[in-house]
Write a sequence for this structure.
């Protein structure tokens, strides 16, 4: 893999147990943006290899930081530019892992062969002993088993000792040497075989999680058929530019995001959005890279470069998400940091004190101490959480739910209350003018012309609806000068030499133009769940002005809104409240139809933040759902900010902690369910791994277990927690 400079998005998937001296989330920005080299390695399957890589790289002058990740099997080295790739490769290889070059797979063949020989010779020695043959012959079998299995363990132990570090390879080596020294050759062989088998199976299991990440990377094809000089030629997707026209034939995947310009077909978007049914596409519809075309050919105008497609952002987000430390991972790190040294000290005490103080037999207590050393390895504990996190993140990404890290995964699972925006969240976000009500003698066309002239300079959804309606009626906006946007209220401008305003009910109140008759008309409109846009004339700031007309604008409630709120209630998420900048009456009417518990209207952006904080102080974990643009402050204030419809907007992904690719409210309870499932697996794995250690600590103290049984238990626990974590990959 080539050296990568000044590229902040190509980070490894980082895990707390597999962490460098500086955790990934803590690496300074200037370090991450400096020169870096990324290596794919073989043999990095547990936290011990990560520590060894750190130790090997640490002495190099010019090193600025290291980031290593078990699941992606990659090491990123940040430096000042003075370190060459060959020099870094040599240092990494010296740690016991091997930088993978090309498709060389010698190590993948060597490890199973050595483990197989170790297992066969251990079994042969045990059979010979069972047949009553003692002495040299079975011992030779056991020694062959120790040497072949130990070939994967002893070199790592030696490298650790050279740096005065005691890792699990050292512990296992001491246990084996001790067993042989006291004449327990069979025990020593069994320990080596079971531990090397555990390492091999663990490597294969973690490989499952790696393949899940790699499957995301392979969603979109590498090439695309692009129109060039009247024909279609196949070019690398990375070379296609926004604005180019690509052809997607029936049965093919789209290589890039774009918009259909010719043709119609159905497309399977499930790899990106999680939708189970194909979606019909016709001119004007959006297409995601990785979508599988159905029966018709589609000509698509590319809207994003290959590095910025929705699929590329999904991959980038899943990789970067693993840099964020989940509380469970921090607990495991802290526990493992103290647990292993404590058990090692206990093992020394167990080996020395009973014989010295109570004249107990040395061989018995040394054996129990060796068992204790095996139990000191926290592999099942430290591997369980990161594999669970990456499996959960990958599974959720497949379902169209993107989460920025393990910390937000746990926060999502602990939500107790929820705040939702109205426009674009509970409603479809495509408001339309339903009625134009003249006031004070103005014609409908004149009111529309003034409103459209003002709103032409605004990006608010209601403003866009007014402009679209005016254009549909054949009314062209006039030039507006001295335009002023009034946040959360409306706008002012001068048109044809006269000062006009357009805005919501609150704005009309503040300008003092509301009369009892106007209030009555507005109340009637708002009771129908319609928003009001008031158009008026105000000669100057000191003049009250007058209302010229009212536009009634309606936004359709999402068909799935009521079902989504009902599911949230059944999951114990209560209250669900609506926060809207729209009039309270309109917001209340919409909330009632959706089954929302409480509603607050006429809110300015800063007031939405206050409501979110109030909800958080009262209920603890609170989520906020919005579009990721207008609701950015409220999303940031919530425990978990959730952006809907993030497939089309970069801002949504940047702002929110959780981004839902599909514009579907039902994805919110689904995201919470998946979050709870993942956290449940993480907690079970931690408790299970700790329970196994506790049981065998007691058994070791009592002398009721053996070396091989302790290794078998540790191996079994490790494989069980990994298998349990990999269940999360199933939909």
């Amino acid at each position: 893999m080539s050296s990568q400079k000044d590229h902040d998005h190509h980070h490894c998937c980082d895990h707390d147990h597999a962490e460098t001296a500086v955790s990934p989330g803590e690496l300074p920005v200037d370090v991450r943006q400096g020169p870096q080299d990324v290596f794919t390695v073989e043999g990095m399957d547990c936290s011990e290899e990560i520590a060894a890589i750190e130790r090997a790289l640490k002495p190099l002058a010019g090193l600025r930081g290291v980031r290593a990740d078990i699941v992606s099997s990659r090491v990123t080295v940040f430096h000042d530019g003075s370190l060459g790739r060959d020099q870094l490769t040599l240092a990494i290889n010296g740690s016991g892992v091997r930088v993978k070059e090309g498709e060389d797979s010698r190590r993948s063949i060597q490890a199973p062969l050595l483990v197989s020989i170790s297992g066969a010779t251990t079994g042969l020695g045990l059979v010979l002993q069972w047949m009553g043959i003692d002495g040299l012959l079975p011992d030779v079998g056991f020694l062959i088993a120790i040497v072949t299995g130990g070939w994967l363990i002893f070199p790592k132990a030696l490298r650790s000792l050279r740096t005065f570090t005691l890792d699990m390879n050292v512990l296992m080596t001491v246990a084996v040497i001790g067993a042989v020294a006291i004449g327990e050759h069979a025990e020593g062989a069994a320990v080596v075989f079971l531990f090397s088998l555990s390492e091999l199976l663990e490597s294969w299991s973690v490989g499952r999680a790696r393949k899940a990440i790699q499957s995301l990377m392979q969603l979109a094809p590498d090439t695309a058929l692009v129109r060039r000089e009247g024909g279609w030629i196949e070019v690398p997707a990375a070379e296609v530019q926004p604005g180019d026209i690509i052809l997607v034939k029936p049965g093919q995947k789209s290589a890039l995001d774009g918009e259909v310009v010719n043709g119609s077909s159905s497309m399977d978007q499930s790899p990106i959005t999680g939708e189970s049914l194909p979606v019909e596409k016709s001119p004007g519809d959006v297409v995601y890279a990785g979508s599988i075309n159905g029966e018709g050919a589609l000509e698509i105008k590319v809207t994003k470069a290959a590095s910025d497609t929705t699929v590329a952002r999904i991959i980038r987000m899943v990789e970067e998400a693993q840099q964020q430390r989940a509380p469970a991972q921090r607990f495991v790190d802290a526990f493992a940091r103290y647990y292993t040294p404590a058990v090692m000290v206990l093992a020394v005490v167990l080996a020395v004190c009973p014989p010295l103080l109570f004249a107990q037999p040395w061989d018995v207590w040394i054996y129990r101490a060796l068992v204790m050393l095996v139990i000191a390895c926290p592999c099942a504990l430290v591997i369980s959480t990161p594999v669970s996190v990456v499996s959960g993140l990958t599974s959720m990404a497949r379902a169209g739910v993107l989460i920025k890290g393990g910390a937000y995964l746990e926060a999502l699972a602990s939500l107790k209350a929820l705040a939702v925006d109205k426009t674009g969240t509970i409603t479809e976000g495509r408001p339309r003018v339903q009625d134009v009500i003249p006031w004070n003698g103005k014609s409908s066309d004149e009111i529309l012309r003034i409103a459209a002239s003002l709103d032409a300079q605004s990006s608010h959804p209601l403003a866009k609806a007014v402009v679209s309606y005016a254009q549909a009626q054949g009314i062209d906006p006039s030039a507006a000068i001295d335009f002023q946007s009034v946040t959360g209220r409306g706008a002012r401008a001068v048109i044809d030499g006269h000062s006009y305003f357009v805005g919501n009910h609150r704005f009309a109140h503040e300008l003092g133009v509301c009369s009892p008759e106007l209030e009555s008309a507005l109340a009637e409109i708002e009771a129908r769940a319609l928003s009001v846009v008031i158009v008026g004339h105000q000669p100057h700031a000191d003049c009250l002005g007058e209302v010229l007309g009212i536009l009634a604008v309606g936004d359709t409630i999402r068909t799935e809104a009521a079902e989504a709120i009902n599911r949230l209630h059944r999951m114990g998420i209560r209250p669900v409240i609506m926060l809207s900048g729209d009039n309270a009456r309109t917001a209340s009417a919409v909330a009632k139809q959706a089954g929302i518990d409480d509603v607050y209207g006429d809110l300015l952006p800063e007031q939405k933040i206050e409501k979110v904080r109030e909800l958080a102080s009262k209920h603890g974990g609170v989520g906020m759902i919005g579009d990721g643009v207008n609701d950015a402050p409220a999303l940031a204030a919530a425990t978990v900010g959730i952006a809907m419809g993030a497939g089309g907007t970069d801002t949504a992904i940047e702002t929110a902690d959780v981004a839902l690719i599909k514009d579907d409210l039902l994805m919110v309870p689904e995201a919470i369910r998946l979050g709870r499932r993942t956290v449940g697996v993480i907690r079970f794995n931690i408790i299970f791994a700790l329970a196994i250690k506790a049981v065998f600590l007691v058994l070791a103290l009592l002398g009721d277990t053996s070396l091989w049984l302790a290794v078998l238990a540790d191996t079994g626990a490790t494989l069980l927690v990994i298998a349990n974590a990999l269940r999360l990959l199933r939909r």
